[in-house]
């Protein structure tokens, strides 16, 4: 039992960690609905994990660990010493399975402590499950004090909202005898409960509330809520599960808000309704398993999300949900079946043997496959690809390295070829056909025993046939080893040598980097440079562009950030010569490239690099400048453009305000109106009463919630406008 609980603890932590990483990766790329799905699948996986661990067949992975580091090594050494001869390394290491019970007798105190912990855990589970079981009784009391809403207008609103959200299930609509927060409950027979004051609501508020609550029904959030409560009960000592439950609640409400807006609700009006409901009904009690509409804790974040026009609000549908559930199921099954076995070892060689023995080895070594060859722009160089059951390899090779291939036959209409390719590591016997510059066929590889002896005699180690095949593909032989020694590299071990061959650190690359003055401390460091695309051609290009004597780290950083010779040359052609490398990389990271600079210069904005970085970061590009210029705002300074962009004064807003009569308004006045929430929609509402106020008057009216017909917006639009203004200012601060 203890072993199972520990296994569940470790693997549930791994599941939660994986979900947190996915959630972090999706933070700015996916909607709240997608993130909610990730956490819902995680909760389902947590509930299924104990059963999966108990029933699935085991997949054991043996992990070699130095004997001195293994817990309880003294007891293990004593047990080995009792049965081992004088050379314990001659015996196969005994795996110590993670979670297995210790062979030694357990002391009474340990047994008592384990029993006490188990009782505490079970007591916590029972208390939380009992609380969950009591919740339906609280809901029954709530429904007994509520009456069915039978008014025709309410029923028609409910039916219309259900059609908009494609809810086909029957939903019961109730009105409480007291003021409660609008809420939804019920997994099989869903019901919506309205407060007593809902009889005075406007049509807009009725639609907003019904759309939000029906969104919970459409998404089956009540079912997910109950499953989450069960998971919290079973895993109550684990803080990660409670955090996952909180993430579910947050993303659930944001996802429902997104559905309401996607159904056609106006963002400002909906935000105002949420704010007012939270203010008037936020303290009203509600059962824990019911889904309330406007909890005060999440209100600020929800309002900002509602007013963010750039927010992604789409949801995964059909195949996307099935694909996500399939991936979650595969992760659950593989994680539940995995068992780690710690194997005490004495030496690195014994650890390698354990690792090798833990992986099923093929009974036979097959080194046959197919090949194809094509010409390149250089007539003396061809591109050759090799494919086997283990994978494919491609590289460019000079024709003089394919001594057995008649060059004149490559361009023949139909010529059969058969020739050997000899490498130190072995011989490729090649057969095939060449037609009009393209060749292809089959091959067989025979590893060289002498080469294996040579590597062993040099202290590198004896390679397997598979390793010799990899070395032969990259043409790594004795000449390569001599070139390493001549360049001052220490003798590599066999694994490093094979990795260098597989990563393209061949003799040509080694000689080219050495000739350019780049000799790293180890072969591993050279492999890292190769993996990042730093080759002699890149170094030569950077030197030509004026960036000589760069360190290996500087070269790798420039390559990773796309600050290559072509980018450096294009920036120099625009007048930005002799830039320090960090400035060149910074400009590349911020998207200041040749196209952006030329477009801005064509509009008369010849700026410094820092100014281009600022305009780019704040979203001021050529299309934005042209859009404002087309509306009459020409010759603006950088500060004016950035200020207008930060405050949301874009061509669409200027055009909309011009359509309602505000033409010829200064840019500063447009910024003031935008900051105070004066938009075309609000202006039309004011103008319907016959008023046509000037800039200062309409700003004052907006601040006081006036709509020009003697009525007020009871402050909610003003608060929403203030929140939006703070949001723009916050974005501007982030960009600066």
Give the gist of this structure.
This protein has 736 residues and is α+β, with helices and mostly antiparallel strands. It is built from 31 helices and 14 strands.
Description:
The protein is an alpha+beta fold and 736 residues long. Among the domains are: 144 residues, 2-Layer Sandwich (Zincin-like), CATH 3.30.2010; 204 residues, no CATH class; 89 residues, no CATH class. It is built from 31 helices and 14 strands. The protein has a six-stranded antiparallel β-sheet. The chain has a five-stranded mixed β-sheet with strand order 3-4-6-5-7, with helices on both faces. Helix 2 runs parallel beside helix 11. About 7% of the residues have low confidence.
Helix content: 40-55%
Major sheet: 6 strands, antiparallel
Globally, the shape reads: extended
Number of strands: 14
Question: How are strands sequenced across the largest beta sheet?
Answer: 11-10-9-14-13-12
Which structural class should the secondary elements be placed in? alpha+beta
Radius of gyration: 35 Å
Alpha carbon gap, first and last residue? 57 Å
Name the average pLDDT.
81
**Proportion of beta-strand residues:** 5-15%
Total helix count? 31
Descriptive key words:
736 residues; alpha+beta; Zincin-like; 6-stranded antiparallel beta sheet; 31 helices; extended
